[in-house]
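Deliverable D4.2, example record:
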Amino acid sequence: MKVYEIPLIAGAQTFLITMNGGQYQLTLLWRDTSGGGWFLDIADANGNDILGGVPLVTGVDLLAQYAYLGFTVGLWVYTDANPYAVPTWDNLGSESHLYFTVKE
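Output generated by the structure prediction step:
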């Protein structure tokens, strides 16, 4: 399995990324509410929504439950000191990281 880190910053962001030959628009948003945190929206390269509001949960493939959408990658979140610690507003991209995986 190949693992690639998606470079992030601590702040809301939208960017295009190529993962396993497919181009996607990723948007990460912080929701400062009870039960909030970082959430991911995925669109195609033209901005057409594919998924919205996926919470950045650590230690699980964020796309596993959406296999029916035909994703050819997995998305994973881990934090340096404690791999299962939830990303905070301040540590996204520095201590908490988003990775995509490709099965060989």
